[in-house]
Amino acid sequence: MVNATEILPIVTASPKPFVKWVGGKTQLLSELAKRVPGDFSRYYEPFLGGGALFFRLQPQRACLTDINPDLVNLYTVVRDKVDELIEDLGQHVYEKDYFYEVRGADRNSAYETWTDVQRASRFIYLNKTCYNGLYRVNSKGQFNVPFGRYSNPAILDSENLYACHAALQKTVVEVADFYSVRRRIRANDFVYFDPPYAPLSATAKFTSYTKGGFDVDMQYALRDLCRALDERSIRFMLSNSSAPLILDLYAEFNIEFVYATRSINSNAGKRGKIPEVVVTNYEH
């Protein structure tokens, strides 16, 4: 956390996600925010990603978790060592050969000696300069997204990093799967689930966000968790695709449609605003 001798700049900007994330909720924030309960004790977000809703709400008490240790390390460094992170980010350059050199670092044994700050800096650099801001790993857990072409990618945004640093100060950030929320959460807490989406078609595939992926069985397990929370009168909100599977799984709860522009489809004709669902177990 911030030490007694650290002098931080005055933060005037509102925090926003410091990484791009496929399926991120920035464009749906107004729709999501108006559905969040007006009062709750603690905010939980088990599928952290870009954390757009967390940064919009800036809750006083929060627990953010994800099964991606590199992502959790990044949030922890932004919370605890933002000055060191900003200094390290300043060395990166937007250049193709350099990109592949940095991307290939996790293929070498020397990577095991990298500090948490160096790993966090690498994460942001690759995220800002890779194709479409994707996060994808191979079966060995190695980042494998190719170089992206941009006019001037914002590798370092010090103002926003300081704003996010301030927002994270009273927040618990840990590596944990979504099941962990069941034993953590208490009455009057609130949880927002934003899992990898169920595919809209039989030919679509889940993103290789982690080595294990997120399959149909996990979608069922998440629904069962929502049922368990509902039985305890704990409020939840969940985002997902409008796939028939999701509409069937959550038919007992409140389902509303919202529209987001998604641009990762390889077929340009299928890009644009598509319906997604927001599921809640309470009236708003």
What order do the helices and strands come in, and which of them pair?
Layout: H1 29-33, E1 43-45, H2 52-57, E2 62-66, H3 69-80, H4 82-89, H5 96-103, H6 116-129, H7 158-167, E3 171-175, H8 181-184, E4 190-193, H9 216-231, E5 235-241, H10 244-249, E6 254-262, E7 272-280
Helix pairs in contact: 3-6, 4-6
Distance between the termini: 36 Å
Q: Strand-residue fraction?
A: 5-15%
Q: The CATH topology is what?
A: Rossmann fold
Low-confidence stretches: 1-5, 206-211
What's the number of extended β-strand segments?
A: 7
Structural class assignment: alpha/beta
- Could you tell me the radius of gyration in angstroms? 19 Å
Q: With helices defined by DSSP (H or I, 4 residues minimum), what is the helix count? A: 10
CATH level-1 class: Alpha Beta
The percent of residues in helical segments reads 25-40%
The CATH homologous superfamily corresponds to Vaccinia Virus protein VP39
Cα shape = globular
